[in-house]
């Protein structure tokens, strides 16, 4: 199931397209005109991002674990961007960023599909082990061969979409405070997408990890480049997915051997497959939780962006989001998002203070 299905209650059913297409009207809904340089909110945002990027190092040896930690950081970055954008007043930058938010949501869906595919492959490996351990007869061996062949060769009924890339282009012009915050969001999103592509595509894809030109406007640039460099190095090493594939190839080789089955060799390689698949299961669950967090945070940022360009006092109300990620405010009524989400338990309920009449 795609995350867009799971969290459909947080999606804007009626996007404020008129406000996006009319910059003059959109600008009137903002508290002040766009200006150059960093505001207080964006300054705090940059300092927090720099500290969090530094805390990622050194990266864990597991590519999946490193990707999960990076996804956690991306979720926090998206959450911090909501209050950092409050009152900054750059309608053009916010409107231009809406499409990039959709691309990030698509990337989350694609990664979730890859995780589901890996879980299916893991289940088929475990099923083959069960058949071999319960009754190592010719019929069981034949069924185990079929399960492993299904794991490696037959495409799933609903193949996952390819992982979308999130290219990062750093502008040379001086940016407003709001644009600087959104640039940081784009940089971390691009880094996470590159890391995911490296983990799930392996050597079949040459992954380019983004770098940021250091300047006084981006205090997080040095820490970002250090993390990007280490991720590029980690991408060249064998991860949990490759380790499981190698163990399964050994198991297939043993049971495909002509003549009498070497039971000692079978036990040894079966134990290796069992260990590798158990390690992979824990890593997949951890990463799945992290991607869910990114998806929810990306929705909250998108809703806040839509709210910031809505016009008219009668159309504006506030959405209060409370939970583990802190407290943020955005608009909801014209997009019918009269909900309050508690991030601690993922429950969603209608906010009692909304003026649109939905309780």
TrEMBL record:
Q: Where is this region: Disordered?
A: 143-170
Taxonomically, which superkingdom?
Eukaryota
UniProt protein name: Uncharacterized protein
Q: Which organism is it from?
A: Zizania palustris
